[in-house]
Model the fold of this input.
Amino acid sequence: MMLSAIDYLFLYAFFSIWLLLIFNIILAFGGYVFYRKTTQRTLDILDLDQFPYVSVLVPAHNEERVIARTVHAIARQNYPSDRFEIVIVNDNSSDNTQQVLLAVKEQLPDREIKIITTTAENGGRGKSNALNIAYQNSRGDLLVVYDADNTPEQFALRYLVYEIVNNDIYGAVIGKFRTRNKYKNWLTRFINIETLSFQWMVQAGRFQLFNVCTIPGTNFIIRRTVIDQLGGWDVSAIAEDTEISFRLFALGYRIGMMPLAVTWEQEPETFQVWLGQRTRWVKGNIYVVLKYIPQLFTKQIKNIGIDVFYFITVYFLFLSSIILSNIIFLICLLTSVQLSLSGNFHLLWLLAYLIFILQIMITLTMEKGEGTLSNFFYVLVMYFTYCQLWIYVAARGLVLHLIDELFHREVRWYKTERFNEGAGHEN
Amino acid sequence: MFKRKSINILILIFSILMVLGGKLGHAQLPGSKHVLLIYDTRVELDALDDKVFILSNLLGHFNVDLEIRQETEVLGDELDSYDYVFILSNEGAFSNLELLAQLPHLKNTVCWLGVGLASYNQYIKLPMSFHGISYDYTKIFYNNGDAIVNQSGYHYGEIVEYIALPIIKVDNEQVGIYCTVSDGLKTNPYVIRYQNFWYISNFQIWGDLFYTVADVLYSVFSEMPASTNKVFIRIEDVHPFRNQRKLRAIADFLHEENIPFMVALIPAFTNPQRNYTSHLAEVPGFVETIHYMVDKGASIVMHGYTHAGYGEVSGEGFEFWDGINNQPIQDVNEFEYIHHRIYQGLKTCVENGIYPLAFEPPHYAISITGIKQVSKYFSTFCGQLQSSNVKFSTVTFPYELKHTPYFEYVVPENLGYIHDNYRIAVQEIIDRYHNLEKVRGFTAGMFYHPNIKLKYLKELVGFFQQQEIEFFDLSAQSNWVKCEEISIYSDNGSVTAKYRQIEQQKSVVEVFFSYVNVFLLTGLTFVLTILIILFLRSRQLRRIRFSKGREDDA
Done:
């Protein structure tokens, strides 16, 4: 029997989808192993004998709604108050961020708080630029970055410092973030589940298996010397975190992971905001992939290899295959064209779905208060709803990136909009 | 000079022989009778069965070379060139009166079957008169194909339906009466012969009247019935998910009894819920089981490809007929559909060393057009024939057919099968068998589903062994199967098959893909098991780790 074109397209889709699914299963196992190791580790963070000076950098652009709580949370860190400073870049805000910051500073007279206010001339050019300004105005040997909506737990800083000080190979150490407004609505519930499983599967899994994880943009510690060597953040990258991770690998450093350093952050509560944020991430990732593909063949950077491979698989193979398989499904449904390949596709799908649920449920049981029955039902539904939105976001990001490239549009920083939080939603 | 002349003569002789040979090739087989079948309409008013199709098959039991024409297409002076002229009158609607007027002058045998002769006897001039019709006849009297003289006719069978038969008065001196019907008081001729003219006043397609006609045809054609009667047993709906131990047990039993049998094989099983078709090689041991049955005396009959095709389960669904709406298969090119399925079915068998010798459509359902097509692939058909192109309706025959316009060989199933009401079913088969015995040279056939208890089959085998009958062996007959590169022949019990293995087998990609499929399925099941264990373990650990703090569940 001769195979027709549709069979070959199907084969392509089938293999690239399963390639990624299997890779993710392997990552999930890695994440579980890492979790077990972490729980068995003894950490004597309370017996730190040295307290290196730390600068906590907080870029803030129109953050009047959340910035006060962020600064308070950072100020409350269990770390000698004379051994860290808080550097806040009020980046070209048009709201009352400045006033809020001044008020907070007044409330915390015993903390070193630096407020740098930029205007349209020297600021407002994105997070990388703001971080560069903060870095230039800081004096710590170690830099910690928090987004303006974060509320780190009290020992977060200690954990990060402990991990980086005890491991010279680490150029940076990342913590873990959790969702503060997860009970707000369905969207934040899904995001909560997604971010937790992402961190345990992709971040922890990669770290365990390939010694690679990427900086998530907040709640990480990085050596000043590294930033010096890098010459600051890349202002043209809209996903500055992935970009800086890659450059760090290129210098021969590694990135550590310390899941006990927890910060709580606010996730988008409306679809529009979520879409904007995610599209920015996708565009950022594609930017990085395209930038580093040539280096894959010239330089010996194995750590980047696995990540570039992962991104290529996700954004090119997987995305095209998912769209293709949907088209093939419709063609077979609506026309007389039929696949001649046969297999237990329904059973395979069911197994994939069950594995999806279990993987996520395992990552959720690792977190206090997440391995619940209600979350189980959200996971069941998530596959058919939230996960499918990814197709749209990824395709949108890809297309918008191409348009940007085509018309040489300037990269803009789409700031994620913040939300007021009612007391009842706090954790 | 001389040499050239002789060569020329040789060439001349040779070419004459060639021409003659060519002509002979197209002429009838030696001894076969050249028969013209003329009809008015194919179906009766308000009926669906194509009676022309049925009669043309029935005549195939005899050594005939048949031509079929509608009455308006026949010229009166053509009739002389045939040995036999059959006229099938379904409605008595003839417009070619010239043709009818020609009939009394013919020297060859004429046989009129059906209604309407009353209106045309003025042309045909048989010495008899018509006096209306009666529906009251219930009994048939017959004399084994000889004329009934001095009440030599014996009670042959029953008429269980209301059938309109003409009330006829004949001149007994001139006319031979071969069969009569009776309402208990009066006797009336049903089959008569006047010189070379046979008249059968009604052509029924089932029941004892049909058997009468089937039997009297021996007299019409002056042929002798076969000296031995036969019966076949067909193990039905054998598909890859049948209990293999049971199949082997059946084969063992029949082999011990020295009984050849048939296996109606469904090479692939489709489960619509799973939308997956399992081919026979995919089920461990199944191919070996079929080979085992063949070794024990089975001949394979291909029973469709999947015995489904319209969203039904294999073994239950229709395949070549839309059984849900009772209509021919729709939305597909019937020719290509049938070709594809026959080819796939044969390929699946042949690739595994299984060689079907005959075809049996699922539920016997396939349009007449489809039957014609299938007869290009299979010499031999086993079962009942569907007799309509529009509705599902089948006809069976009391004996085997070898000269039909379609299949070269039809082995009829006419006894039925053991259905759920086992006791009744066994008795029904025995009753049908006894009824069939009326027809000389009969071939009987029954089928048996392998999920039914073996003891009922044993009972019936015991019954057959007490009869004077031979068990039919399909592989001992000449059969052929041809479809694309596949060809199978059988003769005298030996089966040979040719199958050019071009790349149409499975491509490397397909084979590889099927491995990937199995690998994925097993791998994922394994992963799933591990994940479940991990999940339960991590829940346990969580309880220990977080037990101090209250769970902040929403």
Remarks:
- Chain B has three domains: 33-221, 230-499, 509-536.
- The CA atoms of residues 262 and 299 of chain B lie 5 Å apart.
- The first helix of chain B runs from residue 2 to 26.
- Chain B has a mean pLDDT of 87.
